[in-house]
Amino acid sequence: MLSSIFRCFCGVVFFCAVSSSLRHATIRSKRALTWSGDLLKECPKDTIPPAALEVPTYQFSFDDDIHQSIDLHWLGKDSKSVLMLSTTTAISLFGRVHTPSSLWRSSDGGRHYENITSQINADPISSASGFTKNPVDPNMAIIVAAAVYKRPRSHIYVTLNGGATWKRVYTPFKLVSMRFNTFKSNLILADSSTEGSLGRNGTLYLSTDHGFTWKMVMANVKSYDWGIGTHTVFVSIADPKKKGATRLQLLRTDNLFETYRVVAPNVYRFVVVNGYLFASAYHTETHRQLYVSRMSGRSADWQLARLPEATVSGMYNVLDVADGMALIHVDSAGDGGGSIFISDSSGVYFTKALDDHIQLSGPGKGSDFYKVKSARGTYITSIAVAGSETILGSLVASRISFDRGARWQPIHIEDCTNGGDACSLHIHGILSLQHGLIRQVPASDPGAPGLIIAHGNTGKSHSRIVDIYLTLDGGYQWRKVLAGPHFYAIADQGKLLVAVPIAKDHTADTIYFSENHGECWSKVKFSTVPWHFTGMEADPKALGLKVTLWGYTPADGLWQTMEVDFSDVIERQCADDDFNQWSPHAQGEKDGCLLGYRETFDVIKPNVWCFISDDAKKGRVEPCPCGLEDLECDFGYVWNADKTECVLDKTVPANISRGMLCSTGQKFYNASKGYRRIAGDLCTNGVVDNLVKFTQRSCIGHVSNPPNFGDSSVQKHKHASIVVAVIFGSVTVVVLVYIVYKFGLPRRRGRYNYSYSALRTMEDEPSDAEGSAASASAARTLADVHMDDEDSDVRIVKP
Known about the structure:
This protein is mainly beta and 799 residues long.
């Protein structure tokens, strides 16, 4: 074994090598955690069955496996196949060095594992990008071996049977990134990019047989993505014969590169998301603007995004796109502060919804923006409180939206009588995780309607003293359920909550569980010897009653799992009378109506000892009459101070606002009364028709698309630099990997990660963003655009 770190002194200090002893290196927080994890209220022993105090635990040791980190991946339709990839990354004068990896497989959901390292020849695998699952076929995955210094090709391993067997394939190119088609499992795109003076420049390859044969389809590629359908691809290329912005083109093919057409010039970056095509295009050598197309890219379809506030080189982060509505962060001054804008159903006209929103760009940065999975239309994020001198100072506060970002408000504590700041709750997210204040971001799951669990604190703003808070109504009322920082997980569709307190020395021997939504907690001791706890994971999709703890024994550093199986003690299946009916957003005047309809779920009652079957809690939907809550402010308008009326936005001059509503050649536009129906709203009848009427007015100015936006003539694919067929028995694998949370926290990765100029969505570049144990999101940037998706992989690192 190498020594931990050698240092060479050649005028400057270099790290020559880092051995596998890095597995013991603590990822230290920049600010001290409050190590006070403890029970808030313990359940009386006479309130739970005696057997529950002796929940069985099952330990498995990974013999001789002392790697630095592990990645967990669930394969198969029933998620019974679990792959554990263990890796160690070292640092040398030549950059990152990956030591031989290990691969383990469980066929019983994670209770027992078999060492199948021989199937990948103990090859070094990148922990950040070495494992990719097919989004269509749950039995298919690809492992890519770490790149060898100066070797012009890669080799990968492919499984088509849930990881039972793997086939080794060599690629005659160095694989940098890969994307599966989301409709057909056999279609894969991959590129071999290089970084030069002109930025990212790669060659694009296509496989139509799960990656076993390939052909080169495009050179000089800047970025690429699948469109809607099985054969549509968008590619941004740079013409090497041209200079400046004019060298960039966006191409579209609908027949897998047999032919293609140019759909937009001067496109620096682009992103495809939920039926929209966003493109950041140059108007001058230094000025880019954001354009929107409903996925076709045809000339009549391109529109300049009407954002009343933008910067020449600013960043746009697409936070979410759903039901024809886009939610975008616009950076105001390049300092991480900005505003959230919400679009109409066209994705073109935007209205400001939230000021002082925090979105930091660069490595180790991000946003606290969180899309709640258990309550439709609910988001949580952080803003800079007026008067704070720095974005990352103490004055960072939380805001929540219950209507898909149209209106934002503070978060409230349940039954708070003190008033003022004492009743305000601040939820800690990725920014706090990256700065060492917490070890896990908020958790929610579609299978547990209304339930959110998160770290938080009360007061005027974020503080370093955090506790665990929970809501059962989608975020309207919260209560403290545990004192101090914890790891936590949602199981049995929200009926079972589990938590492990964060100790200062990272050791743990007890798990807490609650069967009554955190009203009280019981203890299960799972180890009699010191155990270095690193992470926890419940069954995928929060359906089961099993919870797996990960850690290692400090004496030898061997990885171990502890499975805590509550199915052995919770034997009764919940009956109909064990449930109550609950509707999201039922508080106040909304009566459960959001976006024109009301949902009703069956949610489990507290203090009943039973398990929920997989087919329980079917939602029911009914329409709602239209009201003011179904409207938002139109372009050029903002809500007044008490959110009761849309008024003219005084920060946007009237001539600019009216000019941005008109395209070249247009003489008139439809002026609203300041309101528009929220995109995707399904309300019927009601009393708001007079508020959404339009009046025809004359245009004062015009907004034009850049020259030649739209279809060009179809071109056959036969230029030497564009297509050369090369077949080789090989498979390619994604360098886009789901990086999960560093602090011993299980993290889930999103499938996407695109980068753009003044546009972001996270899919082209690997990301170090932190996320939750339950499921993580990735982000995209176009004019620097950002988008969130999710997957089921987890990374755990030894602290």
